[in-house]
Amino acid sequence: MRRTVLILAALTALSGLAGAATMGDDGLHKEDWFSLTFKDVAEDIQSANDEGKRLVLIIEQRGCIYCAKMHEELLADPEVADYIKANFKVVQFNMFGDEEVTDLDGEVLTEKTAARKWGYVFTPTMIFLPDVIPEGKTTAEAAVVAMPGAFGKHTFLNMFRWVREKGYEGDEHFQQYHARIINELRAQGKLTGE
């Protein structure tokens, strides 16, 4: 009886975890706050703008250990997840998927042909889009930056902050921005690693 109560308590605690990713039929981890769209990149940029957010596309694939790390460690961290949810519209792409995608240049593709066209070969890859819809450019050409891989918490979170603050328009390169933020956190005693 005691064992049953402990198991039920553990299951209840796990089911109550906010932001816990589930596994989709396509083998990709799913966050309940990811946006389900028609994958028309121009429409998604406009929709993000209407919400006061920026658009980021995340390309993943089934069995990707780094995608799992991103979901299980980074996106499960409330500080990271809360910042992204408040500031970004996130649309997930399957690197080998067959869902229809409309590129910024108007070409209709599948997820897998879009990933190939855009030249993205690593998963996860975060593609940060501008807040102004460019004319005649592909999604890859329009991206303000792309981040391949699941880095440590602060590198990952600082990339989202740098994009939100439009650091790419200024003179402070992301690596300089990241180093400055890390040094500030260390000086405040809020960080001992990374």
TrEMBL record:
UniProt keyword list: Signal
Signal peptide stretch: 1-20
InterPro entries for this protein: SoxW, Thioredoxin-like_fold, Thioredoxin-like_sf
Domain Thioredoxin-like fold per the UniProt entry, residue ranges: 49-130
Cross-referenced CDD domains: SoxW (cd02951)
Pfam families in the cross-refs: Thioredoxin_2 (PF13098)
Keyword presence, Cytoplasm: no
Keyword Signal: yes
The protein, known as: Thioredoxin-related protein
Species name: Hoeflea marina
